[in-house]
């Protein structure tokens, strides 16, 4: 079936924030904030599925009227997305991996990804500008782009050094069926292991990653401080 499938990987055993997908944000679990944000009431435009290894998460998602599929243990979010996509029968000609800790996501993210022409072995993602002096945080992944938005490198360090602003990677990827299979089966290389970034292993396997810069309201929830910041945002909006 042609079209876009958005898969949201979610697991309970987060290292820094255990139980993160079900963490309360102003009366609604984080995972539902993500689903609400990306769908914004229109669930017909693309298929939206949560991929999880937790029956607790599955029950919460289904009770809210969304779709979920149970997967086994997975090495990364991309592996979980790949397993779920295969379990669903390999639907769609574009598969989006939307990280399950992005409560500020908007449908415009999917619009931007769908607007990009894609080759079979290519991936598209998003990035936003942040001040250069705030780029040193290792939990914030940065990307350097070449002509046409082609990703040259991803790092947890601030790159390029000395810049007034850097591009922070946003937690979403768009794959073709070919590139999803290739990325899920790419071995981790020296750089990907050193930076602890799976997208570097894809690049080492010959995958071209195109980055779309924009003003994206993005904030991955990785710590208790992040969670409190998200709660503050939803209280004040």
The beta-strand count equals 11
Tally of helical segments = 8
Strand content: 25-35%
Helix content: 25-40%
Please, what is the CATH homologous superfamily of the largest domain? Spore Coat Polysaccharide Biosynthesis Protein SpsA, Chain A
Shape: globular
Distance between the termini: 38 Å
Low-confidence stretches: none
Please give the radius of gyration in angstroms: 17 Å
CATH class of the largest domain: Alpha Beta
Find the CATH topology of the largest domain. Spore Coat Polysaccharide Biosynthesis Protein SpsA, Chain A
Helices and strands, in order, run as EEEHEHEHEHEEEEHHHEH
Under the CATH scheme, the architecture of the largest domain is Alpha-Beta Complex
Q: What is the SS-derived class? A: alpha/beta
Mean pLDDT: 93
Largest sheet: 9 strands, mixed
Structural domain count = 2
What does this structure look like?
It is a single chain. This protein has 237 residues and is an alpha/beta fold. It has helices at 30-39, 55-63, 77-87, 107-114, 177-184, 190-195, 198-204, 224-236, and strands at residues 4-10, 24-25, 28-29, 47-52, 67-70, 94-98, 122-131, 142-145, 151-155, 165-175, 208-213. The strands form 2 sheets. Strands 1, 4, 5, 6, 7, 8, 9, 10 and 11 form a 9-stranded mixed sheet that branches. It has 2 domains: 1-115, Spore Coat Polysaccharide Biosynthesis Protein SpsA, Chain A, CATH 3.90.550.10; 116-170 and 177-220, Alpha-Beta Complex (Spore Coat Polysaccharide Biosynthesis Protein SpsA, Chain A). The longest helix is centred in the last third of the chain and has 13 residues, at 224-236.
